[in-house]
Amino acid sequence: MPMDMRVVLTEFEGILIIEPEYFQDHRGFFFESYSKRRFAEHGLEHAFVQDNHSRSPGGVLRGLHYQNAAAPQFRLIRCTLGEIWDVAVDLRVGSPTFGKWFGVELSAENKRQVLLPPEFAHGFVVLSEFAEVQYKCTGHHEPSAEASLAWDDPDVRIPWPISNPILSDRDRNTGTSLKEYLKNPAFTYTPPSRKRTEARFGTFAQA
Fold it and tell me: Phi and psi dihedrals of 101, rounded to 5?
């Protein structure tokens, strides 16, 4: 059975929500979680090279992580068990949305996916008893390029739905502030022309 997907634009240039079509009956459901051909039909051509999978109990917060321009990664993120609130922060200096956060609920039930460009720090918090998150990356993990933004930066002001999240030592102690990031930014913004944007992404629904 041929299956398609809905691609939804957001107010953040480059962040896309993917809503796959799925088939469901008394046996359960089936859908294509990723199809290179289907993505290409929507103007999305990415060479994914690594898949990651995490499992976390409720209340865990991971983030906000990114790899710098030495090893950039597009990430295609989905939640395959439970529910998370997924967050990204724009790190492109000069962007209309620089330093602002984007958030969306991803769950095994809604089957949404989020495509994030490399220039966004990413994190999530687990809303259910447990959650499993899987994501595809266009670049390999490179420890020397790892960086993080503080999850509780007062200048970003992300309204996390959990007041006392469970954090790793790294996420608690090593995330930089947006002010510190500006002293040596990893990414700058290059405005795309309208024609180039339409050629690359086509005409999509608005979030």
Answer: -105, 150
CATH classification at residue 125: 2.60.120.10
Tell me which of 22, 135, 141, 189 is the catalytic residue. Answer: 135
Domain-located, residue 68: yes
144 in any annotated domain: yes
pLDDT value at residue 164: 94
Q: What's the pTM?
A: 0.89
Q: Select which of 26, 34, 53, 65 is catalytic.
A: 65
Q: Residue with structure tokens 């398609």?
A: 4
65 is catalytic: yes
* Cβ–Cβ < 8 Å for 89, 120: yes
Q: pLDDT class for 3, splitting at 50, 70, 90? A: confident
The residues with which 81 forms a beta bridge, in sequence order, are 132
Domain count, the chain: 1
Average pLDDT of the chain is 91
Q: What is the mean pLDDT of residues 76-93?
A: 98
Confidence (pLDDT) at 193 = 60
> Is 18 inside any structural domain?
no
Determine the average pLDDT of the residues in 17-37.
Answer: 88
3-state secondary structure of 21: coil
Domain assignment present for residue 111? The answer is yes
